[in-house]
Write a structure and sequence with these properties.
The chain is of the alpha/beta class. It has seven helices and five strands; from the N terminus they run βαβαβαβαβααα.
Length: about 190
């Protein structure tokens, strides 16, 4: 599968040169823009596999655009800049940038950096999804435990009976146990 890349740099020659290099290396450039706001908007729209951002751009600078893209988990960002000060590197790291490339771009540096950056991004997204799923499971368990407690108190059921009742209600109504537990807890609030 071809990696889809968005380029954002305020210098047309750099965008054109970068596009040629990327295409020669087998990447698909899905767009190129000259400012950070356009980069963010196009990233939202196209969902590229990687965004290459220059630091100094009009409207919204590259670091701000990188932070916006990172905050919404839209794509990994590779920062392209003529500067390599420690302060700028730290700002890039804080903005969620996964790769850093200094100008002028050397073709031999590009492919390894793109491949490592996109691989790290996929790992991050997998961990994020796993964390989200775990949080969801924990929240579901908490809701079910509270609903069981309510049924045990209200209807004098044992813990096993309360669990089976929630399970049966879920199957009969074609709802999840979480939805049934939420409905039970809502009923508790209405009758309190």
């Amino acid at each position: 599968m071809t990696t889809r890349i968005l380029i954002a740099d305020d210098e047309p020659l750099i965008r054109m040169n970068l596009r040629e290099i990327l295409q020669e290396q087998g990447y698909l450039v899905v767009g190129d823009v000259s400012d950070g706001q356009s980069a963010f908007n196009l990233t939202r729209q196209l969902r590229p596999d990687l965004v290459i951002l220059d630091v100094k751009m009009p409207v919204v600078d590259g670091l701000t655009a990188a932070r916006m893209i990172h905050d919404e988990r839209l794509a990994p960002v590779l920062l392209l800049t003529a500067y390599s000060s420690r302060e700028l590197v730290m700002q890039a790291r804080e903005a969620g940038v996964l790769g850093y490339l200094t100008k002028p771009v050397r073709e031999t540096d590009l492919m390894p950096l793109i491949e490592v950056t996109t691989a790290r991004w996929k790992e991050q997204m997998n961990r994020y999804r796993e964390l989200h799923q775990l949080r969801d499971r924990i929240e579901t368990r908490k809701l079910i435990e509270r609903a069981k407690g309510y049924l045990m108190d209200r209807q004098g059921l044992s813990e096993g009976e309360a669990f089976r009742k929630i399970q049966q209600l879920a199957m009969n109504s074609r709802k999840t146990m979480r939805e049934v537990a939420q409905a039970i807890l809502l009923t508790q609030q209405l009758t309190a």
